[in-house]
Design a protein that fits this description.
It contains 14 helices and 13 strands. It is an alpha/beta fold. The chain has a single domain, classed as Alpha-Beta Barrel (TIM Barrel). The strands form 2 sheets. An 8-stranded parallel beta barrel has the order 1-2-3-4-7-8-9-13, surrounded by 8 helices. A two-stranded antiparallel ribbon has the order 5-6. Strand 1, helix 1 and strand 2 form a beta-alpha-beta unit. Helix 1 runs parallel beside helix 12 and helix 2 packs parallel to helix 3. It is globular, with a radius of gyration of 21 Å. It binds flavin mononucleotide. The site of flavin mononucleotide has 20 residues, from strand 8 and helix 9.
């Protein structure tokens, strides 16, 4: 593999800033050690959220599924348990009428003095949508999401009552709605189907991806930016990318851990991935892409590993970055160089990993960003910790494989 040139010139596509997201977990059950539970372990949840805030994360995602805790209620709890971290509410338009969604989000925003963010889920699985009475085909779900964004923004900004008669929603004489704390609440959209790019490119403040090989992700970023420009936008959506890092003191030790983890994750997936996730081929494009990458190769670029996606049907965020904190921080900077400004990381050993990333990975990435801001030059982390760009790394990656 040719080693890219990590000289001191900062790539033109590089984001000047990076913020970190991590998902909030409600109980100690993990993919490594699944403990079937239907509940919130309050002490664990409080410890988890506190660890994210102390660890320097900027946002926490409250995901949504038909059998999960309600993301709004959990976000409100996060807001009161923290001072700084921003709760990202995953919201499916089929579950909440848009003016009510606007009201809930504005309430959360005021209760957190302006920290609310919303991630609109159009829904990657017809079966999952049907569990809550939503029978729209996916492309229509995205059209509904598009109308939903318009109503959210009008509900937050219109100073006089207004009526709306759209394809999916109709109401009369609404408002002025309950207002956000100070500024508009950022709207994120995720998904990789054509419809996702169209709606996200035209209307999203943030467009989110699951972790892909660098060049593939860069062309997806250019695609959403192209749609944004074509729609006459002057600001491009911020780019959010998600990984499952597996770190240890050295690359070699990280790979020993990775092989151990993937065996456990595969076993629990086989054992527990029943009705909700399904063992069949995923319907959403993001997961299909992840499986295609996994079929093509296990290793990409500096540290991207796709085996974790292959053994879990790429359900949700499923691609890993494997290595020492330095190698993983350098890999994250590679994505920042491609335009990502929001990096979501969550481990398989949930709480312990969240703490470790906060101690060992976030500071390294932030040091480099500060160095770039001060000097206008790239530091040496990416040149010094080559990961898979150096021959010994792939030896570790293949060692210990069954
Ligand atoms: C970062 C990220 C977070 C997501 N969180 C959720 C979630 O909490 N619940 C959910 O049902 N879908 C979630 N999704 C799935 C998508 O929002 C989307 O609806 C689905 O993947 C449809 O995908 P497609 O357009 O790629 O086919 C998430 C996607 C991304 C990229």
């Amino acid at each position: 593999m040719t080693v890219p040139d990590f000289d001191s010139a900062i790539p033109e596509t590089a984001s000047p800033e990076v913020e970190f997201i991590s998902l909030s977990h409600l109980n100690p059950s993990t993919e490594l050690n699944p403990v079937p539970t239907r509940g919130i372990d309050l002490a664990y949840f409080r410890r988890y959220v506190a660890a994210l805030e102390e660890g320097g994360y900027d946002y926490t995602l409250l995901p949504y599924g038909s059998n999960s805790a309600d993301s709004f209620v959990v976000a409100s709890a996060v807001g009161q348990l923290t001072e700084r971290i921003r709760p990202i509410v995953a919201l499916r338009p089929n579950t909440t009428f848009p003016t009510v969604g606007a009201q809930k989000l504005a309430t959360l925003d005021q209760l957190t003095e302006g920290r609310a963010v919303v991630h609109l889920i159009s829904g990657g699985s017809d079966a999952e949508q049907a569990r809550q009475g939503d029978y729209l085909p996916k492309e229509r779900r995205y059209a509904r999401t598009s109308e939903y964004v318009d109503v959210l923004r009008r509900s937050w900004t219109e100073s006089a009552p207004f009526s709306h008669d759209g394809e999916f929603y109709r109401f009369d004489d609404f408002g002025p709605g309950f207002a956000p704390y100070a500024s508009p609440i950022p709207i994120s959209i995720g998904g990789q189907s054509d419809e996702a790019f169209q709606v996200g490119g035209e209307k999203a403040d943030i467009f989110s991806f699951w972790g892909e090989p660098l060049d593939d992700l860069r062309s997806e970023i250019e695609r959403v930016n192209g749609i944004a420009r074509a729609s006459g936008r002057t600001t491009l959506p911020r780019i959010w990318v998600t990984f499952r890092p597996i770190i240890a003191r050295t690359d070699e030790l990280a790979w020993e851990k990775a092989h151990d983890y993937v065996a456990k994750v595969a076993e629990s997936f086989q054992k527990y991935a029943g009705r909700m996730i399904g063992k069949g081929a995923p319907q959403n494009v993001g997961s299909k892409r992840a499986l295609a990458f996994a079929n093509r190769s296990e290793l990409y670029d500096r540290a991207l590993w796709t085996k974790t996606a292959a053994v879990t049907g790429a359900a949700g965020a499923s691609t890993a970055l494997v290595g020492s904190p330095e190698t993983v921080a350098a890999a994250i900077l590679d994505y920042v160089d491609r335009g990502a400004s929001l990096v979501s990381i969550r481990g398989y050993d949930t709480l312990a990993d969240a703490v470790d990333y906060g101690r060992y990975v976030l500071p390294l990435v932030r040091q480099e960003i500060a160095h770039r801001r001060e000097t206008g030059r790239r530091g040496t982390l990416q040149a010094e910790h080559l990961g898979n760009y150096a021959p010994e790394y792939s030896r570790y990656a293949t060692a210990g494989q069954a």
